[in-house]
Amino acid sequence: MEKAILRVLIVDDFEPWRNFLLSTLQKLSHFRVIGEEADGLSAVHSAEELKPDLIILDISLPKLNGIEAGRRIRKLSPNSRILFASADRSQETVEAALETGAGGYLVKTDAGKELLPAIDAVVRGKLFVSPSVAGEHAAARRNRDGVEHDGALSPKNIRARHEVDIYHDDIALVNGFSRVIEAALKVGSAVVAIATPSHHAQILERFTNNGVDINSAIERGSYMPLNAADALEMIMADEMPDPARCSKVVGELIARASRAASEKGARVAICGECAPTLLRQGNADAAIRLEHIWDETTRQHEADTFCGYLWSAFPEGEDSALFRRICAEHSAVHGRASNES
Questions:
Q1: What count of other Cβ atoms lies within 10 Å of the Cβ of residue 210?
Q2: pLDDT of 260 above 50
Q3: Which CATH number fits domain 152-336: 3.20.20.140, 3.10.129.10, 3.40.630.30, 3.40.50.300?
Q4: Which of 33, 129, 231, 328 has the maximal Cβ count within 10 Å?
Q5: At what angle do helices 170-186 and 197-209 cross, to 10 degrees?
């Protein structure tokens, strides 16, 4: 079955950027750019007239800034998805942009690797924020009681997060998992890390080098490392994940971790490589099925999961059906640079 055509309106006053977007999207058969505008007022008028499926919208625009244009567009064309694209990395700007009801915020300098994942997430109704600003954005958010929370965890009144990071290599994956683990432990939460033995060893080495007392967390039970292969052995049946087994195993892990958390009522964070391991083994259907079961299970226990895949698992890139199916099972999609520290 052919993909539905996605009608796109590009809004930016910098012509080379508009040309980049146009040339990128024209290479893909399911995108059709139906308009280009260079100022905010024209963007509002075109959005009202054309009712595009997606609007890629700059912040700094003449006549009417992008944030105000976004607010007006949301009223005039509520079914149009908005992806802000800007060079501005300030948290005030990110917050203001997303408060318009936009579906994402893309940092322009990261667009080479993040443009298509950002579009994919936004059109599916999921939030996308470029990872280079996402951590600070999450840390700056406040829940309804005004209590600040860390980017690795969600407050109790926020539904469970099931996010995916696509990394360029193993070093980036280890760095990404390490950041989540350290942030969670700092706020008194517990972490279950389900990873390969080599990644576990590298995570421990990173913490040792950074002076993080991870051994004490292991002794307390607030950091629980588990071999991904061992976890899969407990939840698989006939080469497919078994819902009952998965619910039991994951539920018990979350319960144990929750009891070990130093902060009462803190959520459990899970760094996971189970489905990615299945994908590496060539069992894509099992990987997708596990992501779906995992999502249902962790929602019941209000635990947050951060999955880590390598780009090498998707040889056809962002436009592959497999990539899109994996992304569809997650609440947010991120892609991080290979040389992150």
A1: 10
A2: yes
A3: 3.40.50.300
A4: 129
A5: 60
